[in-house]
Write a structure and sequence with these properties.
The structure holds two protein chains of two kinds. Chain A is built from seven helices and 14 strands. The radius of gyration of chain A is 21 Å and the shape is globular. In chain A, the strands form three sheets. A seven-stranded mixed β-sheet of chain A has the order 7-6-10-9-8-13-14, with helices on both faces. In chain A, strands 1-2-3-5-4 form a five-stranded mixed beta barrel. A two-stranded antiparallel sheet of chain A has the order 11-12. By secondary structure, chain A is an alpha+beta fold. The longest helix of chain A is centred in the first third of the chain and has 18 residues. Chain A is 25% helix and 30% strand. The two termini of chain A are 32 Å apart. Chain B is an all-alpha fold. Chain B is built from four helices and no strands. In chain B, helix 1 crosses helix 4. Chain B is globular and about 30 Å long. Chain B starts with a helix and ends with a helix. Classes of the chains: A alpha+beta, B mainly alpha. At the A-B interface, helix 3 of A face helix 1 and helix 2 of B.
Chain lengths: 302, 84
């Protein structure tokens, strides 16, 4: 399948050349090798711990979509695999193809998936104490009556398609909502760092200001917060966020949670979303009488 | 020099050298960084200032604090000098 796509990319490039277009080929291919830590057959994804991929990303553990039919079923946690990593759309879309298992000896030693309860839609969010960019403590319950869009980052994240994307898209949503005072007052944005050791209040403030175009009044609608490591784990488990630190870099999943005005989970997103979609869902959730406008169940976990 | 180039490709290239719609602002390209007296931020174009920016971050640029060794930083800055 990898070869087929490669051929197709070459064919596309040749066609473009014939047309005299100055376009770049739409996909890039990288050699990929790593150890599978978990698999999700429903989502057709493998979570893989891998080394540096020069030109694409540093060493990391993260989930990858798989194109090969049946590959996710065959692979088990602990396996070392090699594959072609295909990146398209400037690295925004990427997936694995041509997967081969090269070492199965790690199967028995792989860590089992942690047993944890991921909140289902309608369940109450734990009322954890957080500290914001100004060093002010607050709780989730302080937002009762408002729809809150929550996401998780660490400020040192160097991957443009991960935390910087989350923050830049939240920035767009914040700017859009500011144009509609009613919705602005009924909503809140919350960016939580899972790197509390580094992301102290001053660091979060500086980071937040960059995404607020230095308008500090924006913090009244968008908090950048962290909590102690133990409570962060609780929060992550509740929302299905996975993260762990390795060589001062944190591997993590991308998770966005919409919390309803009554403090319950309204919706989750992980990979496929746009700022417009998040904003629409947030505005809808914040409407005073949403009786028959319950949001869809895209990306629902648990 | 190869080590500096590898670090550049892994850590810098994605944002600085390619238009990236995921970013809030497109960061400056790094060719000729040391040719002018000042960096795009207006700070003096010195090794120490570039090192400070890499380590501490600037604006939406993430800090690479604790992620790059002294040797990494030296090799990376040395490579940046070669980008014309």
């Amino acid at each position: 399948m990898g070869r087929a796509l490669q051929r197709s990319a070459v064919a596309s490039a040749a066609t473009l050349l014939l047309l005299g277009a100055a376009c770049q080929p739409k996909t890039k291919q990288y050699s990929f090798r790593g150890q599978v830590l978990a698999k999700d057959e429903t989502a057709n994804e493998l979570t893989v711990k891998h080394g540096d991929i020069p030109g694409f990303m540093p060493a990391m553990t993260m989930p990858y979509k798989v194109k090969d039919p049946g590959a996710v079923e065959e692979v088990e946690a602990g396996d070392v695999i090699v594959a072609d990593l295909i990146a398209a759309n400037q690295g925004k879309d990427y997936w694995l193809e041509g997967i081969r298992i090269v070492d199965q000896s790690g199967r028995k030693t792989a860590e089992p998936a942690a047993a944890r309860h991921i909140l289902k839609v309608g369940e109450s969010v734990p009322d954890i104490r957080l500290i914001n960019q100004d060093g002010m403590p607050f709780h989730f319950s302080d937002f009762k009556g408002k729809a809150v869009l929550v996401t998780f980052i660490y400020t040192r994240c160097p991957m443009p398609a991960f935390c910087p994307r989350l923050s830049s898209q939240f920035s767009k949503i914040h700017e859009d909502l500011a144009k509609t005072p009613g919705d602005y007052n009924r909503t809140h944005l919350l960016t939580i760092s899972f790197d509390p050791k580094y992301d102290t209040a001053p660091v979060l403030r500086r980071y937040g200001l960059a995404y607020l175009d230095n308008h500090s009044e924006g913090f009244s609608h968008w908090d950048f917060a962290s909590t102690n490591p133990a409570d962060m784990r609780k929060l992550a488990d509740a929302f299905g966020l996975q993260y762990f630190e390795q060589d001062n870099q944190i591997s993590h999943t991308m998770d966005i949670v919409l919390v309803a005005p009554n403090g319950t989970v309204a919706r989750y997103w992980s990979s496929e979303w746009t700022a417009a979609e998040l904003e629409e869902a947030l505005r809808r959730e914040a409407k005073p009488a949403p009786a028959d406008s319950s949001p869809g169940r895209h990306g629902v976990k648990g | 020099m190869q080590h500096g180039q590898d670090l550049f490709e892994v850590h810098c290239d994605d944002c600085h050298e390619q238009a990236n719609p995921d970013l809030k602002k497109q960061p400056p390209r790094l060719e000729g960084l040391f040719r002018s007296k000042t960096l795009p931020s207006g700070a003096p174009a010195t090794d120490n200032q570039v090192r400070k920016t890499i380590v501490e971050g600037l604006g939406t640029m993430p800090a690479f604090d604790r992620r790059l060794s002294e040797k990494d930083l030296n090799d990376l800055i040395q490579y940046l000098h070669t980008l014309k």
